[in-house]
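seq:
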Amino acid sequence: MSMEEASELRKDPILDRWVIIAASRGKRPTDFQPTPEPEQSAGCPFCGGNEGKTPPEIYAVRDPGTKPDTPGWEVRVVQNKFPALTIEASLRRSGIGLLDRMGGFGAHEVIIETPTHGQDLSEAPLQHINTLLSVFRARLDDLRKDDRFRHIVIFRNYKSAAGASLSHPHTQLIALPIVPLFVKEKLAAARTHFRHKERCIFCDLVEQETAIPDRVVLSNDHFVVLSPFAARFPFELQIFPRRHMHDYTMMTEEEQWGFAEIMKQTLEAYRHTLADPAYNMILQTSPTTVARPGHPEYWGTLASDYHWHVELMPRLTKVAGFEWGTGFYINPVSPEQSAHFLREQIGHDTKFATA
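struct:
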């Protein structure tokens, strides 16, 4: 779609969701000016040496011989100081008529990515990113031992415009006793496709998009970065493993290195193309595969029909009345333009080593 073309509606190939690609607005990366971020390093509770300002350590990658809640760590995990959900809460369900409720049971953790305040993930060494990815795996494995958790989401809010209250590099994890509606919709769409075709809908999508690569931004032997056909936001991206696997923890060591490499390249592309924008990054792995009471069939085909992936959404536009009132999104940059701009930056910058 060129900038001269009229706007069009596009349907998401996975979900029953439409977006408006307003190509007539034809915005370029330089049209988006990020808001300056206030400096917060003084007294930051996540900086090395300030371990006493956070809740006790849950997990850490540390130098040998160092003690919990002291300096000497590379990645550190603590409970959120103001958790949305807690393990101590009751799981009891109650309700009257249409008004259902349950206790605020769950887990809310902060994964402090580095003791260095100014080291962003896009600038971190590849070895450090790989270590962080291993911490994600370790926390998923540990929390899944509690079969009360149904779904665990790992997400990164980068900068205040994306919801971060502290500028120190960190990721959050929330474990839930229910599967969110958005995730259920993806699972249902994947299961329906598999029942009809006995193929994973995400595998089909990756195969189709790489065959006509207008929306492929990056790829290596193990991962592909796509600008989604029905992207809701300018420069929204999705990262898919090439090999079918429903669960993030199924990666081999070689695949995890490939994921670390392509994540670093993608975030570097954001930094250079979009002047270091605020963004949200969400790891969409499968729910826990424990069968739900009364629904033994619920997870029956999940290993075959779901495919874990990452969603990246720069916060370049605002969601306003039309979006809230309709569920439609208006995207002023076509996915093809987004992919072109990012590929162009990657091709011109010698920092990138594309596969």
